[in-house]
Amino acid sequence: MSFLDGLRVKAKEKQKTIVLPESNDERVCRAAEEIVKQKIAKVILLGNPSKINISESSVRIIDPNDSEKKEDFIETYYELRKGKENRKYAESIMDNFLYFGCMLVHKGEADGLVGGAVNNTADIVRSAIKVIGLRKGCSIISSFFIMKVPDHGYGENGCLLFADCGVVPEPNAEQLADIAVTTAASAGNLFGWTPRVAMLSYSTKGSAQGDSVEKVRKAVEIARGIDSGLIIDGELQLDAAIVSDVAKKKKADSVLSGNANILIFPDLNSANISYKIVQRLAGAEAVGPVLQGLAKPVNDLSRGCNVEDIVNSVAVTALQ
After folding, report:
1. Percent of the chain with pLDDT over 90
2. Which of 18, 110, 180, 258 could disulfide-link to 244, CB 3.0 to 4.6 Å?
C-alpha cells in the first residue's frame, strides 16, 4: 500500500465531514463523488443544487444564499469581528462561500474545509483566520507539502515534507523556527513519523556567509530551545540533508546523517519553486499546501490541482 493510499484508509476510519465550497468547478464535483464513493469522508458541497451536476446522492448540498443558517452565521461573524468590521460587512461576507464554509467548521457542523481550486491561497487563509482563528500557542499560520517521489528512498520511503511552500513570504528567524517545530509536530501527529528536520540553505555549516545563512542558523537554535528533543540540523545544503554519502563529506557529525524527512526552506520563494520543480520534473505526487496553526483544519489547493489532488487533500484534512 502506498503512503497516500494509507492516508485514505486512515481517513475512512474517522468519517469526518469536509466542506468543499467551490462547486462551480467540475474537478471539485468529481472529487466529491470519489470521496463519498470511496467513503473517505462525508462531503458538504456549497452551491445552488440546480446548477450542480453530481451523481452521488450522499453528497450533501447547501446553498448559502438560501440557507436558514445564514442569519445566525452573520450574527456570529459580527460578534467575532466586532470593532474591526461592521454588521453590513458581516451580511455581505456571508455571501462568500469560503466564509460560509469556514463558519460551518467554526460552528462544528463540519470538521474541516478544502478550497483553492478556484480561490487563491490568500483568500483561503484570510477567511480561515477571520472565522476560525489560530490554534492556542501558535503565532502564525504556515503550510507544508507532502512530496512522494517515485522510485527513491529519500525521507520516509520516498516521502518528504516541504515547508513553507504557501503562506509566509519572508519568515524571520523566529517564524522559521515556528514553521520547523510545527511541521515536525504535524509529521508526528498525522503520519506517525519520527521527524528529522533539515533547515536548508545555500551553505552547509559555514561554507558560505550571508544574511539568509545567519537567519537559518539562528532559527535552528530557537527551534532547539522550543523543543530540545527535536532532531534538527542546519544550515545545510539539500544534498547534505538527504544524501548520506554527501553528508559524510560535508557534515560527518550531523545528527541527520543525510536522512532528513522534513525540509524547511529559508523563504517562500525557494520553497514554492522547489516543490513545483520536484512535482513536474521528478513526477512527484504533491499533496498540499496543508495549512497548520489554525484552531480547526482548513486546507488549500493549487489552482492547477486535479481530482486526485482534491481527494488526497480531503483525506489529510480529515486526519487533522
Report:
1. 56
2. 258
Distance CA 54, CA 28 (A): 10
> Domain holding 245: CATH number?
3.40.50.10750
* pLDDT tens digits, one per residue of 287-311: 888 999 999 999 988 888 889 889 9
User: With contact defined as beta carbons under 8 Å apart, do 27 and 310 qualify?
Assistant: yes
Same domain for 149 and 271, yes or no, is: yes
Cα 297 from chain centroid (whole Å): 9
Q: Which residue has the higher pLDDT, 70 or 3?
A: 70
Q: For residues 110 and 298, give the distance between their C-alpha atoms in angstroms, rounded to a whole number.
A: 11
Q: Which residues contact 84 (CB under 8 A, 6 or more apart)?
A: none
Would the pLDDT of 1 be above 70?
no
HSE, side-chain direction, 13 A CA sphere, residue 94 = 25
Q: 89: part of which helix (H) or strand (E)?
A: helix 87-93
Query: Could you please report the per-residue DSSP string of 303-315?
Result: TT--HHHHHHHHH
If asked whether residues 254 and 276 sit together in one domain, one would say: yes
| 194 CA to centre of own chain | 19
C-alpha cell at position 282: 521528478
Do 239 and 308 lie in one domain? The reply is no
In a domain, 286, yes or no: no
| pTM for this model (two decimals) | 0.84
Overall domain count for the chain: 2
Q: What value, to the nearest 5°, has the Cα angle with vertex 164 and ends 173 and 158? A: 125
Whether 116 and 205 share a structural domain: no
**Domain extent at residue 80:** 3-133+294-319
Gap between the Cα atoms of 103 and 87, Å rounded: 16
Asked if 249 contacts 203 with a C-beta cutoff of 8 angstroms, the reply is no
Model confidence pLDDT, tens digit, residues 32-83: 999 999 999 999 999 888 888 887 778 899 998 888 899 999 999 888 888 7
